[in-house]
Amino acid sequence: MIKEMAALEFPTYDNLYFKSAIDPTSRIDLVEDYWEVELYGQSNSNHGPWNSLRDYCEGLADTGLTRLPKVNVPQVLSYHGSAEEHYNLIQTTRAVFRKLIGNPLVENASAPILLLADFHKRNIFVSANDPTTVIQTFPSLKKRVKLNEETKEEKKAREDESICGKTLDVVFKGFIPKIQAARDTDETVFRPFRYCHTSWRERVPVIRQQLIEIWKRWDELGLTGQCPHTPTETELVEHKKQYEEFETAQRMKASFMQILHITSDGFVEQVRWDEVRTKFVELYDILMDIRKDLEDAEDGYNAIGTAKMIWAFDEPDKIK
Length: 320
Hints:
Blueprint: H1 2-6, E1 15-18, E2 28-29, E3 34-37, H2 53-66, H3 83-100, H4 104-107, E4 124-126, E5 134-137, H5 152-175, H6 177-183, H7 187-195, H8 199-202, H9 204-216, H10 233-260, H11 273-297, H12 303-309
Antiparallel strand pairs: 1-3, 2-3, 4-5
Helix pairs in contact: 2-3, 3-9, 5-6, 7-9, 9-10
């Protein structure tokens, strides 16, 4: 079935919806019940469908710009970045896209393909009368990290998963060249496409890091001309500091996700809310106590303030 799905030809880059969902003037008809349309509403005039990779890249950049706040927004996270910083980095990424268009690294992996991007259990809809009946699905691949010793059943499941992964790898390489071409694309080239339109959510260090990596490898990747992103030594030093803060925050966030069994956006099943909130507060207090000891040991270092500046979740007193 994967081979048949990958073989489907799509004339544009955009999103797939039922025909009855949106104004016919904004769509391109595909088959009897489905059509393609933009995802994010009418705030972005460049919302597709896009007929070429160049147009699609312009749409990514324009979408990123429309998600920036129109007024100054106080940022709790030290590394988030101002709207102006995001604007400049998105425009630089747009310039990088224009350089990448036509390069075999991108062109060979740019054919439109059907993809389910939001792949988790909250996007699986079941019947109100029979919860065992799935009526609509955007399937989920969610892995829960176990902190206790692995059981025999878990070990068998992990081994089976590994076999399935290797089998799927063979299928991609042997039967679905369209997907394999994308999988073979150098990550350095691919990442700007991933983060440009979500810059405000991902934070400044993320999108800047992708631009720095492609700048460092510009000649190695066989790209012509000068890289649109050419940071100064001062900018590199400041970025290194911000990126380290960002990585520290992500490690802290990952630890909380593993211990509390929550998702990256803090989602908790309602039946576990009281239990998780209690543990969350306990862990937060332990962290602050550790930072206070560090602050006392290093005179002049605002360890608690720094921890709060990189904290990835709401503080306990803001959680009801």
